[in-house]
Records
---
Amino acid sequence: MKKLTINFLKADLRMPHLMFWDWMFPLILIIAFSLFVKSQEFSSFLLPGFVSLFILQSIIFSLPYRLAQYREQGILDLISKKGSPTKLLTGFYLSRIVILVIQTALVIVLGTFSLGVTLDVNGVMLLASLAISILLFLLLGSLCGWIVKSQNSALGLAQAVYFWLLGTSGIFYPIEKSPEFLKILAQISPLYYVNNLWSHALVRQEIDILGNAGASGIFLILFLAVLAVLVKGIKKGGPKHETVAQVEK
């Protein structure tokens, strides 16, 4: 499993679009904001949002694409017949978690110094927020990956989900000061609740911890249930198109 995880890490580092979204874009965005944001209050508002956004971004632009790639090329079908797809997917998920942990630590450190944020960390909430964020968005990314049938459609769906969540999460603006329709949309945006949890974890912003954690839990259960139904349906229906597995028969 260790070797498989390392191989996935190496593969991700060789993919230009993943390198950009995982490492370059967070750096560029934080530095760009640091040039213009001089308010300590606004900087403290932005940092938790950056952490939340980059966790989502790292998952949503990698996981659906790779799952679609494995299905499109018949790799999952081939392994299902000759080995264990669970081992393959576990190795991939572990590699993504390693990247997310490193990335999150770098974003917090870089954001703290670049934006001039004074942290007031709640250690328990930080670990809880990290675990909830990763699990929630891994399920969302997996769900998107099982819905699509090609790599191109995976990227298209990832972009749609990303910008929808970005626009309804209140990361760059307070939801409380937004139009009424955005306040309503925020209630069905998992990124909104994740952002709130990170705000309390990093700067101890006053929030309803149980309410936000509970809402995140509801999304977790919902994504898991829908994903289970999709995976079960795909296994029953079998592959819909010619794959590598079929060619090798």
Note: The chain has one domain: 2-236.
---
Amino acid sequence: MFQDPSKILQHLEGKLPQPQSPLVLAPQPCPSMRPVSRPALRTASRQFSAAASSASLTSPAEAAPTLNPRWLTNLQSRISACLETNPPADHGARLKKYRDYLTSNWLELSAGREGFLTDERWRGLDKFGVAWGDMHGEWAWGPAAMVHVLVATCGLIPSRQGHVNNVMYNRYAESGRVNWFTSLAAHAPPDQRQAWIDLISPRGTGLILKSIKTDYKLPVAYPDRITVIHKLARQPSYASENIFLDAVIYSEAHGRVAARCYEDIAVYNYRAGKRATLVNFMVDELQRVYQLQEKNRQETENKVKELHQGIQAIEDRLF
């Protein structure tokens, strides 16, 4: 066994056959299929995206204004730019205070501004460790990759490269959703607790995931920790046969949203074998949660506005 990986590479390169000219196959027409132009494909993609967005959950009357996804990064960059000018002591102290606040509360500000409740009880997964097995490998096969495998077999370096498999995001969201409803059960009055617990089981009135749409924002890789938070996308009524939830999956390593999920959940009576509505006390509680979301959205928006104004005031004096 070679001790030096470079010698393994030299050995492999000497033994591997030289690549031959690639075999080129002439395309054969298929009479049973009509050609589809790329513009048509792009149009279909846009139509699907628009349809998914309109159906996913948040009604126009309840939709929040679109936020710049990089607003938090922009604030941090503005603070850094001010600090680089070596500002007066009082300005510098305020800027550092703003910077430390953003560093400590980035998730609460980012999620709260969208109406998510960020206290620990509302986090379906809180700083959940990404496992090595959650990832899938991506290889550029060749002599160097073969060396990588051989050396990895000896236990010297990891053998897998890539990011978390996309299907894992839906699993994270599912775990977070179950824990979200479990939290409602844990904080319910004793006489109502079992009914909440039964929602996530096929007994009596329960919930069935009708559809889920996931938007992937950035790749997550080991080692990292994620936080999953759900919110009600629509305020339910006593006649509602569906619960619409939005979820965000945050990457701690990136300090940003890694994925967004939009869930349509049907209420189902397992005993009767048909669609159903929630019992009144559940609707009352979910409506209360929705109002808490809106209150938190406004409070967080006010905090962000104060940060903007404070930083802007210092910028006006420095620049």
Note: The longest strand covers residues 256-269.
---
Amino acid sequence: MMFESDRSGVPRAYVTADVAAVDAIGLAADWGWNLNTGQRLGILIPHRTAIEENSGLAQLDRSGEGVFATWRYSAANAKTSGPQIAYYPDLEHLLEVERRMPAGIVLVGADETHRSWVTAYSPTLLAGKPIAAVEPAIDPVVAVAVATFTDSVNSSTGLVDRRDRSKVTDGLQRLLRHGYAFTPEQLIAAALSANWQGRAAFALGALADDVLRGVRKQVRERYADGIVERWQAAASDRGREGGP
């Protein structure tokens, strides 16, 4: 992932699901316009009927100030690189928006399922009850393992490549055998923080879920013996240096 463009500077915000949808759209649109990008808003919705169900969306559609795309099509096919409003997406679709590095991303309908995204990017809360960070915090040894995955995974393909998937699977299995706990949420948040593409981070979480459930995986590419001990030593060094 070392050759990926830095995503940390993309402005991000969210409105939680307890805020009325029409009010949330107004806040999200104002936030996008205030970025002053000179581009129209991209609005990603689950289906076209969402426009009929939300007067705020309908107004943006009539005015031409919003360019709409549905989740049925890849978010990467959105017609504008301006600020993107992600309207009630699941986590996978939200992370697809991250792939294109638009001028800004605002999530409408945020809830606990989006905690890994909130934890990784600390987006601005526009309205509603704040989404708590992923808890517990990721184990330092697991965090070092994610850093190793980051250095070894092909940035252009993420975990699509079988060799990358095999090696990461081996690493996760070794962590489990050594007694280290982790959750898909923790790994997704850590991967996003390490600048992974959104879809690759989501794939890491799905792979972790399989490993935790004991799904049999064919592992052909492996880390060298002693890799967990090296992760432990690196985590200890980070702790002494006050690193993350």
Note: The domain at 12-127 is CATH 3.40.50.300 (Rossmann fold).
---
Amino acid sequence: MVMTVKRTGKIRHRLTPCLCNIITFANAITSHYPEQDPMTLTRTTMALCLSPTLLMAEAPKVVTDFAPIHSLTAQVMDGVGEPELLLPQGADPHGFQMRPSQMQSLSDADLLVWVGPAMSPWLERAIEAASLDHSIALLSAPGTVLREGHDHDHDHGSQDAHGHDDHADHDHKDHAKDDRADHDHEHGHDEKDAHADHDHEDKDTHADDKDHDHEKHEDHADHDHDKHEDHDEDGKDHDAHAEHVERVDPHAWLSPKNAQIWLEAIAEELSELDPENAERYHENAHEAQEKIAALDSRIQARLEPIHEKGFVLFHDAFGYFSDHYDLNNLGSIREGDSAPPSAAQLAAISARIEGGEVSCIFSEPAQGDAQVLELAKSAGAGTGVLDPSGSSQDVGPMLYENLMWSTADTIATCLEGK
């Protein structure tokens, strides 16, 4: 028998196993010491088992969307618990069909940590269906550097997100406190201005938008708006949010600055759910931020000698990485995560190749190999494979560091030979 006490949301306190055997224990003692009162023994055993020192608290059940976010969350939870990974390695985070067991895991969670609907729109619907009490969409964390996505003119540039403290959409609590944006533990380099040779700089974007499509409309009772007008306004809000989600480049974890901000955001959320371990969460976040700062310096040194050499990507997933490290990213063969390359896009890339600007062309695991090899052959360019989600890395706390370093090393190795 296990007794549970509801603390916050679905978080449970599990009592020690001695409660399961109180009567058996008391009977055994009585058989050896018949002079003792059985009720006195039972009360004494109950008091010991209910003592705060023997009350064992379960860690929050935390679910993360995919491997890079799992890695960051695992670092914050070190010594307290382990987050669960929702998507298996290699699964497409942009479109995924959950199994019933995965949906149940989401329903049982105390907290979901995910990138946001710009990365996984299907997960937004699953959150609503699971009646999840707490989730944090990291793209909305204040201070997050956002880039505009592929479906608008690319005028690259970065701007800090201005998140809202109150994310009430769908009754999900996507906390993101303003003071997280300027946390004292940020040791990464400031985002550099986009490289002068870049033709496709992103326009400034903001993370003001709420995390969910069906945002409650502001009360207009004082303005004589009828129900039909309110409905129209709700529709406009819905469309505006959907458009913003489509515009945001969701691959924001590939900026070390964002990763540092997100570590603090995760620690804040966990501390609110599990105040008993708040100090540990923040200590872990600070330690992880220090590691990312050291990693950032190593990557800067690795990429500095080749940062002016031009390269082309299979798809536009490494804009944050290129912007942060001032790389000469000349564009992508495929602009969207699922859209095939357009004739205009291929023509633009071909023109750069013919102009001798392209030193390397990078594909992704199981994607773009044939096109990349064909273009590289015509250009005399080198090739490599870049993996934005770390699908070939071992899942765990070290995945983020391994992902970032392997990305830098792959780019540098290819460009050094050209």
Note: The mean pLDDT is 74.
